[in-house]
Amino acid sequence: MHQQDKKGFTIIELMLAMSVVALLLLAIATMTMQMITIMTKGNTFRELNAAGRTINDDFTREFNSIYGLGEWTGRVVNDPTADAYYVRNGDSGAFCDGKSSYLWNLYNNRRRDVADDIHFQNGDPIRLVRVSDPTRSYCQDKNLWTRVPNNSNVKNILSEGETGLMLYDIQFSTAPKLIDNASNQSIVNIAYVLGTKNDNNQINVAGMNCNPTGQYKDYCAINKFDITVRTLGRK
Q1: A Pfam family in this protein (predicted)?
Q2: Which of 63, 124, 150, 170 is least enclosed by beta carbons within 10 angstroms?
Q3: d(Cα 132, Cα 85) in Å, to the nearest integer?
């Protein structure tokens, strides 16, 4: 009897097969990482735009529910005064419409943190909040900026969220030609820049873009929002 020849894979065939499997696994891993990156960027932009819609909706409802802005014609002051409606002081500010007051701190890239000139009583930082304030006290007394109560009278309009959202700029503007003296209606333009935290100098605010470098580049997003609102006018 003749012994049958033993059949099997040679070492070279096994190495080739393992190489093909390794390449397939590498390709799958690369595609998975690319999909995760795309999803991360998409989630970041979605959270940014959702925050912008929330802010826009709040501004619209607020200004559409007030009858006028008194004597305000667009004037901005650096320190609170008895007749102030709009105060900006460094990276912080307040806008008081006679029903509520908006308080904010801007992201300060020099300190790589949100400014803390305005904060809650417990010391927690504020990004953008709306406070019930019919007497416009936050535009008349800066001492109140460090004693904002964290209660039902304060609505936190912008939270940090999962991607570290920051307010980079905000401007309120109007002009005498946008005020109807007969009806006391005012048209107000509100422009603000919203973005993720600036890690490793990723964000170019002036150029409104994210540089494709840095550890957190996939979480980088910035956008400018511009909204025009109208007050009700006289009762």
Answers
A1: N_methyl
A2: 124
A3: 14
